[in-house]
Amino acid sequence: MSMLQRVHVGRRYTPPRLLVYGTEGIGKSTLASHAPNPIFISTEDGLDQIDCASFPLARSFKDVKAALADLLHQDHDYQSVVIDSVDWLERLIFDALCEQYGVSSIEKVDGGYARGYTHALTHWRSLINDLDQLRVQRGMCVILLAHAKVEKFEDPEHTPYDRYSPRLHKHATALITEWADAVLFATRKIITQTHEAGFNRERTIAAGLGKDGGERILRTVGSPACVAKNRYGLPPELPLSWQALMQGLAAQPSPTNQPAPTLRLVGSETSNPQE
User: Fold this and answer.
1) Could you tell me if 116 and 94 are in contact, meaning their C-beta atoms sit under 8 angstroms apart?
2) Which of 40, 150, 258, 260 is deepest in the core (most CB within 10 A)?
3) How many CB atoms lie within 10 A of CB 216?
4) Hey, is 144 helix, strand or coil?
5) Which element (helix H / strand E) includes 90?
6) ∠ at Cα 40 (55, 171), nearest 5°?
7) 149 pLDDT exceeds 80?
8) Are 189 and 215 in contact (CB under 8 A)?
9) What is the DSSP-derived secondary structure letter of residue 57?
10) DSSP track, 150-185
């Protein structure tokens, strides 16, 4: 068969690849637990208060790879795979490289000069290949969770500014954010008010936070404040809930004579999300 005979025309309906990151306790793990029949691959201990299926805590990169291999080759009914979290997974990758090269720090791998971070990309690409196989061969939704950090962004067109990004090395962040269909920043929507403080001074305070500390939202479009993107035409902001996210995806137009993808809404929303 020639390459021309294998040309695909039109959109492909495949499960999404999501990277969700945010501050501690915002509700990332709770969000992922409402995905269709998920199973968690945990690299950090933090799922005790969440009703979900999970592999034993992964203490090495080999443990993560073994879990992915079982999901690919063994019989099961899971429809989503969640890695919680990829920044703790990065530490396992660094540990594997340190063991391989017999050094005590990623900075010393292969003689140093940041070679360790470059070698880490080989492990990340191997992981991404496994996730893509689960997505294509087993039809599984892929969700990666990460904590957030504040980094200084050197914008060539403006003065440098701070923004939120996943708590990963810049090489890993670039690779994963390019691969993912959506990078979503989980945060709180806070409204500020400015008041007169006397002596010609003003004071800015947060207003309307409520007992939960502010409305929890997902930012889906990048801005000077955060790294984010999506390939689905989602609105810039969504409530932090799986139902709202799936409704946003389902609202996208479908090509003529092709059915829209079936998106299940699984689980009920909780008023007290956990990490």
Assistant:
1) yes
2) 40
3) 19
4) strand
5) helix 86-101
6) 110
7) yes
8) yes
9) P
10) EEEE--TTS--EEEEEESS-HHHHHHHHHH-SEEEE
